[in-house]
Amino acid sequence: MRAQFVLSEIGVGLRRNLTMTFAVIVSVALSLALFGGSLLLREQVSSMKGYWYDKANVSIFLCNKSEAQSGGSCAKGAVTEEQKKQIKADLDNMNIVKQVDYESAEDAYKHYQEEFRKAPIAGAVTPDQMQESFRIKLKDPTKYDVITSAFAQRPGVQQVQDQKQVLEPLFNLLNGMNYGALGVMALMLVVALTLIVNTVRVSAFSRRRETGIMRLVGASSFYIQIPFIMEAAVAGLLGGALACVMLVCGQHFLVNNWLAHHIDVIQFIGWGSVLAKLPMVLAVGLLMPALAAFAALWKYLKV
């Protein structure tokens, strides 16, 4: 009988405040969708870092005749065979180096033509303009500075370049987008909590006669509060379910059916990551409004 009464009161409260309940559902859905999206974006960035940092090399570009004529670090002339042998020997003796590959000017020119064959400037580049280089795979990518300090000032070396540094701006941009999504989520969360508190108080005020009668017959504060807390929890759960639908649709339509076909250099996270976040989104959608309603009613309906 008590359970039937509580359920009937929940239905009455949701129908009486239909407009505000709808606003709560939408605001909770948007905030939780941003919350789940930010978690997925963070996981995507971590996955991309692990993938690309593992493939990133440290490159030692050697001076050629063109670079020697332009001065700078190659002012002493093009690299000699003796200098190349010494650089290779020193790299092989370093315990932080996992693998060393030599790329000749001809190989560099071939790779350049394959990568930029459609670019107008591709035909203007000649093999003698390309640089020889050593491509180094480190056991620990964070030890790039050791290679720089050891080889940057060597005769015959034009520059030492860490490909990981080229990727940093992209990851910083993605992290910035993630923080922006978290900021919008926090704002939407404040809006949702405010709506929940106001909806619960309006509902409690509209039923002050019923709650007064319940006080007179000896009902406890918690028993009086249960219908209002459950109303907020149901609205929040519906908002969480809507957020889950938005995340699933985003994965299916935006990621799998669009981004994955247009950006093939990124390994996007799969359904496993998305499905793992859905229970968390539902749990937050259920608990957050319920706790907000409990806090709002603590003094208002206290016997």
Structure report:
- This protein has 303 residues and is α+β, with helices and mostly antiparallel strands.
- 71% of the residues lie in helices and 8% in strands.
- It has a four-stranded antiparallel sheet with strand order 2-3-1-4.
- The protein is rod-shaped and about 100 Å long.
- The model has no long low-confidence stretch (mean pLDDT 80).
Apparent shape: rod-shaped
List the quaternary state of the chains: single chain
Order of helices and strands: HHEHHEHEHEHHHH
Mean pLDDT: 80
How much helical structure, as a percent, in the residues? Answer: over 70%
The amount of beta strand, in percent, is 5-15%
How would you sum up this structure in a few lines?
This protein is 71% helix and 8% strand. It has 303 residues and is an alpha+beta fold.
Secondary structure topology:
Blueprint: H1 2-16, H2 18-55, E1 58-62, H3 65-70, H4 81-92, E2 97-103, H5 105-115, E3 133-138, H6 144-151, E4 157-162, H7 163-206, H8 208-216, H9 221-262, H10 271-300
Antiparallel strand pairs: 1-3, 1-4, 2-3
Helix pairs in contact: 1-9, 2-7, 2-9, 2-10, 7-9, 7-10, 9-10
